[in-house]
Amino acid sequence: MWLSTVRRAWHYKYWQRQTAGYLRTFEKNNKLPNNEMIGYVINDKHPKSIRVACDRYMWVMRYKKAFRFTKKVWAHDEHSECMVGDVVRVQPLGYRLGPWKTYVLSRILHREPRDELAPRASEKRNLLQKSETSNTEMQ
Fold first, then answer.
1. Distance between CA atoms of residues 87 and 110, nearest Å
2. Whole-model pTM above 0.85?
3. Which InterPro entries match (predicted)?
């Protein structure tokens, strides 16, 4: 794995390139039951919700190569414990929570190393909104 300069923002495509098929080997070893998927969190800006990018590798006979297909799904994270970069396992609910959320977080497989006190993006937004309201009240 090539280590490069520190990036300002985490992006899932960058993570895919750096890990060189980590999820592919993990998924090959474990045949996942009932449509469960493994992916990484790419968005945690909403409370109790995460966006997960799940990779599928399919062998295409015409080109005799394995191609990666990325599916992005919304998942319900009840305790808001996941943050951007975490590798998680999600399972389908069988029904929808809202217009898009159809999966639920079943397990966190790997936590991305970060500061202990780093807040989630949804918590940052709430803090910004609170500071803006307090500033308007003072004026």
1. 5
2. no
3. NA-bd_OB-fold (IPR012340), Ribosomal_uS17 (IPR000266)
